[in-house]
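Sorry to interrupt, but I need a hand with the structure work. Could you add the entry underneath, on a fresh line?
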Amino acid sequence: MRRLSPGWMIGIGFLLVLAGAVIPWLIVLQVIPSTWALNFLSFGASMVGLMLGVAGTAYLVRLRKGKE
């Protein structure tokens, strides 16, 4: 199995955090109904995206530090 590159990890993390922010915004605007599952999905996407972005950034720093 191939590993994700740091750029992909940061990009996917950004999209997940963005989804975690847009979904509650759409719920507040009453575009989509508020359900327990959707709220939990939004929170989970935000947390996983944040962790993935931090891990991707740390991985990128480690790769660039090794090239010096």
Remarks:
- Residues 6-66 form one domain.
